[in-house]
Amino acid sequence: MPSHNGTNLSPSTFILVGIPGLESGRSWMAFLLCSMYIMAVAGNSAVLFIVKMEKSLHIPMYFFLCMLAAIDLVLSTATMPKLLSLYWSDMREISFGACLIQMFLVHSLSAVESSVLLAMASDRYVAICHPLRHASIFTNAVTAKIGLVALARGVMFFLPLPLLILNLPFCGSKVLSHSYCLHQDVMNLACAGTTPNVVYGLTTILLVMGLDSLLIFLSYVLIIHTVLQLASSKERLKAFSTCVAHICVVLAFYVPLIGLSVVHRVQNGHSPLIHVIMGNVYILMPPVLNPIIYGVRTKEIQRRILKLFRMESYGAAQ
Fold it and tell me: Which of 44, 125, 139, 208 could form an S-S bond across to 69 if both were Cys, CB 3.0 to 4.6 Å?
């Protein structure tokens, strides 16, 4: 390990933590996490498969949903294997390089997901407020370009985070406060000034997630204003019902994100248990809930799922 004046510049490993006080129930926690991971993989894979097979769903709304599903699959896979090894086998160490890669994936994919949620809000805004222009504005080609821009935006803004960590010296504790690597968590273990990390991290969060959430909120203010002007209560209910699934997905993403950010920036008085639970909720809630929300709220996906079950039942009966 390189050193300078007795200071470890880059530790070989960090130590992840499980849920404090539940060490005796690690196997049950591992079973729960494994079950949630299987649900996330199965649900998001089903969304991708259904949209691919059903040509009537080859429209921007469902392509955005596929983007969310793909992001959730990669994000959960980037963190879940290490989580399972932690709780199942008590393997707490993660190498410095693997930690930086995991950190980059978690933050950049979260930024991409935030961008896709903003694009979905814009899609709903145009569909409700300017329905005659929707087909010409949100074409499949435009949707693909939005996906590429969202990916580039996430990489561009969050690639500097692990690079900034590389410049920090570590000479004290190597124990993180989560079951996976986050920039704020790793940064707090440094034994030097972290002002550039703090400033850049906060600025990036505000420019990406903060700006996206503000624009999503403004789009729904305009949507509500337009919906309330409809003459029929039935039309108002029908128009707003098309947004319910997206609103639920937005809440499932931003509420844990805000909670985790608050826990990191107001640390005094918080027990380690809160850190671990908020971190796990943030990383697990969207991948598990998103396909369930859209499966329940979207009739086209429900029909395709029922059709698949009927085909399997018919095949089993033959």
Answer: 44
Q: Are 121 and 250 in contact (CB under 8 A)?
A: yes
Kindly tell me the burial class for residue 235, based on how many C-beta atoms sit within 10 Å of its own C-beta (0-12, 13-18, 19 or more): exposed
What element of type H or E holds 67? helix 60-89
The domain segmentation of the chain, as residue ranges, is 12-317
Phi first, then psi, for residue 206 (nearest 5°) are -70, -40
CA distance 99 to 95: 6
Q: Are 104 and 79 in contact (CB under 8 A)?
A: no
In the CATH scheme, what architecture does the domain 12-317 have?
Up-down Bundle (1.20)
Q: Which pLDDT tens digit goes with each residue over 135-166?
A: 999 999 999 999 999 999 999 999 999 999 99
Give the model confidence (pLDDT) of 4-21 as tens digits. 444 445 678 899 887 766
> Residue 318: its pLDDT value, please?
54
